[in-house]
Amino acid sequence: MANGLLSGLGVVKRKVFVSYHHGNDRAYYDAFINAFSNTYDVIHDNSVERAVNSDNTDYVIRKIRENYITGSSCTIVLCGPQTPWRKFVDWEIKVTLDKQHALIGVNLPTNPLNADNKYTVPDRLCDNIQSGFAVWVDWSTFTQSHEAVRQYIEIAKSKSTQLVDNSRALRQRNG
């Protein structure tokens, strides 16, 4: 079952981790789970912040790696207006990149264009969209069907790990 694949009765399910701002974007996470949990083995994190109660950054990152990212094949980052300023989202992206797993940024309908006519995206995710490693897609396009989600995951998994940019310093606090 390497590489995030689970099988049973001939059905193969990719194991994915969904990173998001729990305070603002839980409804989109729930909608994703409701629509796609029969197709994908979604790792339920129930908020890393609450699950891993520690001020030790190295410990928290190790727990994210061991308990949430290891075994998955892809991290899906739900990007709402407050997502870029959440340290745990940054840390989850960092661990995903450390493990060289696929990375998809999903722009939520609640994420407005900024003054530069761009969407607000976590810096580490933006670095990897710009490098060509991460896939960037709108919520409605991504979630239109099981096949659409599958195709985006496969596109993300096909990206060269040489494109990974994980050079940014860790976000130390929520903004």
- Bulk shape: globular
CATH architecture: 3-Layer(aba) Sandwich
- How far is the N terminus from the C terminus? 38 Å
Give me the strand/helix succession. EEHEHHEHEHEHH
Count of discrete domains: 1
By CATH reckoning, the class would read Alpha Beta
Measured by DSSP, the beta-strand proportion falls in: 15-25%
Average pLDDT level? 85
**CATH fold label:** Rossmann fold
Radius of gyration of CA atoms, rounded to a whole number: 15 Å
The largest sheet is: 6 strands, mixed
Question: What would you call the quaternary organization?
Answer: single chain
Structural class based on helices, strands and sheet pairing: alpha/beta
Model regions low in confidence, pLDDT < 50 over at least 5 residues: 1-11, 46-50
The helix content, as a percent range, equals 25-40%
Number of strands: 6
SS summary, helix count? 7
Structure description:
The protein has a single domain, classed as Rossmann fold (3-Layer(aba) Sandwich), CATH 3.40.50. The protein is built from seven helices and six strands; from the N terminus they run E-E-H-E-H-H-E-H-E-H-E-H-H. Strands 1, 2, 3, 4, 5 and 6 form a six-stranded mixed β-sheet that branches. Helix content is 39%, strand content 18%. A hairpin with a 2-residue loop joins strand 1 and strand 2. The chain is globular, with a radius of gyration of 15 Å. The termini are far apart.
